[in-house]
Amino acid sequence: MAWNDLQEFLAQLDKQGELKRIDTPVAAHLEVAEIADRTVKSGGPALLFTHVTRRDGSRYPMPLLINTFGTERRMCQALETATLDTLAGEIAGFLEPEIPDSLLGKIQMLPKLSRLSALQTSTVSRGACQEVVEKAAPSMADIPIIQCWPQDGGPYITLPLVFTRHPERGTRNIGMYRLQVFDDRTLGMHWQRHKGGAEHFRQAASRAERMPVAIALGPDPSLIYAASAPLPPEVDELMLAGFVRKKSVEMVRCVSIDMEVPASSQIVLEGYVDPSESRLEGPFGDHTGFYSLADQYPVFHLTAVTRRREPIYPTIIVGPPPMEDAFLGLATERLFLPLVRKVLPEVVDMWLPPEGIFHNLAILKIDKRYPGHGRKVIHAVWGLGQLMFTKVVVVVDSDCDIRNPAELVWRVGTHIDARRDLVISDGPLDVLDFAGQAPSYGGKLGIDATRKTKEEGFTGEWPPIILMSPEVKARVDALWPKLGLGGPSRRSQ
């Protein structure tokens, strides 16, 4: 069954030894981030800080949660699946059209029909996120919002679900955008130009209208992930959450604006942005491992705060990889592979290395069928959703272990002729990319590291890979324990 809320998920992590309570006083200014950075890089547990302090030493009245998704195991637990590939297989099966022609076939369709119903949200009259309502003088002063890095422009909310609605069509978008704290009632709204929230804002600006915005903090884990997922424009992220949790998401109407938010949230910030107002936001220590520069962004004004009586504030830090967001990215890589295959069925697997910072490097292995196939995939990736931001695309043959960096580098180094196999192009880049020739635009590189055919200009003879015979390997495997040599008993090939 779906996690009802964050507390239920944390209780399970605690039971399994995956949650560490820290009762020692720790400062929200930099100290929480440094502890979290060391913990995620060592594969450590989720951290629940119960005594977070302000700059003046006083204690925040609520605990702070971080490194919630900081291992693949916890990412799987958050999405309630044995493995990410298991859930990806369910998505692939859901995407395949089936027309049952027998009673048994119709019965077998029932789970899929049940999942269809989970894609729709339901509305409740009151949610746990509204146990306490502050409208007269709303403030964010009691939330232990951290400053992550020394040169950040200030404290940042880093794990928000930002709800907006298209001013004309009424369609909903949920994005995960960093929010700089200017003061207790205003935030910098950092939605990048390619994001759904930014498009809604542009539409509101064209009508010279204020746009209502709701910021939900800490709903159940599947909703947090869904907000980070690169869904197509105008596709509701709550549909993905409902599919993952096999249960529709309960929503509750906000108290000061015409919006709905997840009833299971810990805290909800209600307010608006005015198209006529902007403020300098940043710098911010970003997932690139560098500070993104300050720039003008819209300002969120708080009109109400609603929360649980005993809320938990969830947050995350990004920076030099690997960080906690690497596992959110891993989930996206695995869960969206079936969607990539719907467009590019020749793709066998895909790897987005954490050090590639999501948009900088994509490795694909393909079932190569004809001359130019590798180049076709490279160009297709640059036209496929948010993969359009990818700076470097590497395509290899289906027998390459793309998650083995040693084998991958070996294949690329031995399989390419630089003049023949490199594809140079131009196109959109992620807003956070600082190396491009212009903001959000720059050069791209495709590397076709597949075996080449004569039709592709290869005039020599492609040599076979050196492999030991299976019989000899089996005999040596049996002998190995008696040799006293230590190390691995099996070769990688």
Summarize the structure.
With 493 residues, the chain is α+β, with helices and mostly antiparallel strands. 28% of the residues lie in helices and 25% in strands. It has 2 domains: 6-314, Electron Transport, Fmn-binding Protein, Chain A (Pnp Oxidase, Chain A); 344-456, UbiD C-terminal domain-like, CATH 3.40.1670.
Account of the protein in words:
- The protein has 493 residues and is of the alpha+beta class.
- It folds into two domains: 6-314, Electron Transport, Fmn-binding Protein, Chain A (Pnp Oxidase, Chain A, Roll), CATH 2.30.110.10; 344-456, UbiD C-terminal domain-like, CATH 3.40.1670.
- Helices cover 28% and strands 25% of the residues.
- The chain has 15 helices and 25 strands.
- It has helices at residues 6-15, 31-41, 72-78, 84-95, 103-108, 110-118, 196-206, 221-228, 237-245, 325-335, 337-343, 373-381, 405-415, 418-421, 470-483; strands spanning 19-22, 26-27, 46-49, 52-53, 64-66, 122-124, 132-134, 156-157, 161-165, 172-175, 179-183, 186-189, 211-217, 250-253, 260-262, 267-281, 284-285, 291-292, 295-307, 313-314, 347-351, 361-366, 392-397, 422-428, 441-448.
- Strands 7, 8, 9, 10, 11, 12, 13, 16 and 19 form a nine-stranded antiparallel sheet that branches. Strands 21-22-23-25-24 form a five-stranded mixed sheet, sandwiched between helices.
- Strand 22 (361-366), helix 12 and strand 23 form a beta-alpha-beta unit.
- The longest helix is centred in the last third of the chain and has 14 residues, at 470-483.
- The radius of gyration is 25 Å and the shape is globular.
- The two termini are 41 Å apart.
